[in-house]
Specification:
With 62 residues, this protein is mainly α. Helices cover 95% and strands 0% of the residues. It contains 1 helix and no strands.
């Protein structure tokens, strides 16, 4: 019985280790996606600002 419990503990420890690695990989992927989203948001904001500036320049001539 002690052998079975020891083996179960070993398996549980291995499962926990794999789960930790999966969580770490998911955290890294989430961070990469967040960084990409920030870059996209910055690009959109810049495009909007440029468009607004172009519109302002166009209408301020009149």
């Amino acid at each position: 019985m002690a052998q079975v419990l020891a083996e179960a503990r070993r398996v549980a420890d291995a499962v926990i280790q794999v789960a930790r690695q999966v969580v770490q990989a998911l955290e890294q992927e989430a961070q990469a996606l967040w960084n990409e989203a920030e870059q996209i948001a910055d690009a959109i904001a810049q495009a909007i600002a440029n468009a607004a500036r172009a519109v302002w320049n166009a209408i301020s001539k009149y």
